Amino acid sequence: MSEVFWIDRDGMSANNSVSHKLRKLILETGATDQLEEGMRVALKINTSEEGYEYGLRPIFIRVVAEEVQKVSVKSTIICDGVKIIDYRRKGHSGNAFQNTARGKGYSDTTLSGNFVINGGFSGDEANSYTVKAADSLLGGVEVGTAICRTDALMVLSHVTLHPLFGMSGALLNGGFECLIGKERVRILDGINPYTFSDAPPKNEQLERFQRRALEGVLGVREAMEGKLFYINYLWDVTSEPEYYPYSNLPIAPNLGFLASRDPVALDAATYSLLREFSPDSDPVDHHTGVDFSRVLNQAADLGLGTLAYVIKRSS
Questions:
Q1: Which residues constitute the domain of residue 25?
Q2: Is the pTM here over 0.85, yes or no?
Q3: What are the φ/ψ torsions at residue 79 (nearest 5 degrees)?
Q4: What is the mean pLDDT of the chain?
Q5: Which segments of the chain have a pLDDT < 70?
Q6: What's the structural domain count of the chain?
Q7: Which DSSP category does 28 fall into?
Q8: Residue 54: CATH number of its domain
Q9: What are phi and psi of 261, to 5 degrees?
Q10: Which pLDDT belongs to residue 123?
C-alpha cells in the first residue's frame, strides 16, 4: 500500500500560506531524501498557452526549487516541452515557447532555478530508453535531455482534466509530457489533441493513446533509474489542459497539494478527491467522457504503481 500525503488549504493565514504549506509537504513526505549534494535535479512543470488563465503561479514552483537546492546546492533545472501543435501560428521555436512562458511570469528569477526547454532549444534533443513491457506498443521512447541527463526528477503537475487521457496529473505529466515533441506526436498517432476543433476520436483511438502515453512513464522511469517524486497541485482545476488557448472556470474548490513516490496511487487519490468535492459525481467522465478508472487500472497492470493507498492528511 502506498502513502499519499495531502496538505489541504484549511487554516490559510500569513503564517500558514501556500509557501508554508508546500515547504511542509516537502518536509513531511521526505521528498528530498533521495537527493545528495552535487546532484542535478529537474522539476517537470506545466506552462500554459496564451489565453489559458489558470496556470500555477511561479511561487508554487519556486518553493520546491528552493527546497531542492538546499540539499543539492546546484541550481535546480525547471523545464517544460514546446507545444506539439502551433495553435497560435507562432512557429515551434524555442523563442516562441520562452516568450509565452515569460509572459506568464516564468523566468529563472521567479522560479529560482534554470528554466529551460525539456528537449533543448530545438525541442527535439533526447536520449532513447526501452519500454520494459512484454506487449509494448512503442518499444522505446525519447526522453528530453533536460530530464534524462539529470540525476533525479520531481514531477510537479497542475491537475486539470484532459480530453484524451481524462486527467492531467502525475501519470501524464511524468510520462508523455516528459518526451520530446516528435515523440509525443508519434504517441498521438494522428489524433488532434484540440478536440474542440475536430471530430472526437473513436474509443479505440483513445484507448490506444492512453496505453501508449502510460508506456511513456515506463520510459521516464528507466531514464531516471527510479529517482522520482510526484506532486499534484489541486488548485484551479479546470476542465481544459494548459495547452488549450482558453480555460473555463475551475470545476472544484482548491483542495491543496498531494504528493507521493507512486504516480498511480497519487492520481487515484486525486481522482477520488475530485469526485468527492466536485458538483458532478464524476467530473472526468462528465467533461471528457473518458473512463479514468480504466486508465488507472491499466497503469497498475503495467507496474507503474498500486491502486491501494492511504492518505495522510494535514493542514
A1: 2-314
A2: yes
A3: -145, 160
A4: 94
A5: 86-92
A6: 1
A7: H
A8: 3.40.50
A9: -90, -5
A10: 86
